[in-house]
């Protein structure tokens, strides 16, 4: 489907792909735990990203040949930021609880409108801030069920990932070097340079990607393909399209439902049993996201 036809749809219809991304990203927490070990994080990330590059590159080959050196450099910069997001988030999740990781990473949806407003020298509306606050409160109740502990090194790493996510969203929207670059080509360049980050780090971070791949059985390969095709290729293509055709604040708010979907998969597949506060938090996330989606600043062009 052409990007132009997607852009012509009503806002509610254009938000559906982003909600689908939130769902698959929510499921990725459980999938990653069943694929990666603490000493194989970098190798799994390299495999996850590397697997989609040949297919995506084949589809984008004509667009890639048309890119200028400046556009390649812009895509490479975004790819390095993307690599940092995943390294911080994945290592942080390994060294902290799922509760704290889900709460801290959701702060992206608060950081983004504040950063966007600072860049524009304006202020988000009170209604939007209230909606974001309700969503954050909901995430706190949902993931923590009313209880939090003091920050650990893992919590701080995930906090760094939330900041890096904000940088990634705003840089994608504002970086002049990549304006006009077809989303398919830009997605490939980003993923390629992120993969280079993981490949460069792998000699110092545990087993090589090849050794990890050789150790996988059919079940782990299936889960890895799920991470590659849906949680990576589909998700980042949709996010790239969304931040270039709408408000980065609304994108971050919709993706902020990720912890809600993580809890849904945890209950359905991992046997988690949320308490009353967690259920109240789920309702607050849904209400805050819908309210914020309607009240998000309408910055159509950065």
TrEMBL record:
<feature type="transmembrane region" description="Helical">
    <location>
        <begin position="16"/>
        <end position="35"/>
    </location>
</feature>
<protein>
    <submittedName>
        <fullName>Permease</fullName>
    </submittedName>
</protein>
<feature type="transmembrane region" description="Helical">
    <location>
        <begin position="185"/>
        <end position="204"/>
    </location>
</feature>
<dbReference type="InterPro" id="IPR000620">
    <property type="entry name" value="EamA_dom"/>
</dbReference>
<keyword id="KW-1003">Cell membrane</keyword>
<keyword id="KW-1133">Transmembrane helix</keyword>
<feature type="domain" description="EamA">
    <location>
        <begin position="153"/>
        <end position="289"/>
    </location>
</feature>
<dbReference type="InterPro" id="IPR037185">
    <property type="entry name" value="EmrE-like"/>
</dbReference>
<comment type="similarity">
    <text>Belongs to the EamA transporter family.</text>
</comment>
<dbReference type="Pfam" id="PF00892">
    <property type="entry name" value="EamA"/>
</dbReference>
<feature type="domain" description="EamA">
    <location>
        <begin position="18"/>
        <end position="143"/>
    </location>
</feature>
<feature type="transmembrane region" description="Helical">
    <location>
        <begin position="126"/>
        <end position="144"/>
    </location>
</feature>
<dbReference type="GO" id="GO:0005886">
    <property type="term" value="C:plasma membrane"/>
</dbReference>
<keyword id="KW-0472">Membrane</keyword>
<feature type="transmembrane region" description="Helical">
    <location>
        <begin position="72"/>
        <end position="94"/>
    </location>
</feature>
<feature type="transmembrane region" description="Helical">
    <location>
        <begin position="224"/>
        <end position="243"/>
    </location>
</feature>
<dbReference type="InterPro" id="IPR051258">
    <property type="entry name" value="Diverse_Substrate_Transporter"/>
</dbReference>
<feature type="transmembrane region" description="Helical">
    <location>
        <begin position="41"/>
        <end position="60"/>
    </location>
</feature>
<feature type="transmembrane region" description="Helical">
    <location>
        <begin position="156"/>
        <end position="173"/>
    </location>
</feature>
<keyword id="KW-0812">Transmembrane</keyword>
<feature type="transmembrane region" description="Helical">
    <location>
        <begin position="100"/>
        <end position="119"/>
    </location>
</feature>
